[in-house]
Amino acid sequence: MVATKTSQPSTPDGDDDRRALHVFLSDDAHDSWHRVASELGVSVSGMLQVIAFELGKDPADSALGPAVDGLVRRARKIDAERRRR
């Protein structure tokens, strides 16, 4: 994963300092992010940003709640499989 700081046009919340996040996903995961974002009428970057904020909260206060533990287990499995390649 590569994060780079970049300047973008002003955003409605006044946050001009944003970073690009470059990740490698499976074709299915990539298509899923874009399909779901399109169906919901949001951008993938918007979804990633709000999920990041939720992950930073105490699980009891997060909209993700108990799902975080399951997501983390699945992410660790993917990471381990990729390291074996």
Give a brief outline of the structure:
The protein is of the alpha+beta class. The chain has one domain. The protein has three helices and two strands.
Topology:
Blueprint: E1 2-7, E2 17-22, H1 27-40, H2 44-55, H3 67-84
Antiparallel strand pairs: 1-2
Q: Strand order of the main beta sheet, please? A: 1-2
Task: Note the beta-strand portion.
Answer: 5-15%
Q: Flag low-confidence runs.
A: none
Major beta sheet summary: 2 strands, antiparallel
Number of domains: 1
Radius of gyration: 15 Å
Order of helices and strands: EEHHH
Secondary structure class reads alpha+beta
Terminal-residue CA separation: 16 Å
Categorize the overall geometry.
globular
Give the integer mean of the pLDDT values.
85
Give helix % range: 40-55%
Total helical elements? 3
Number of β-strand runs: 2
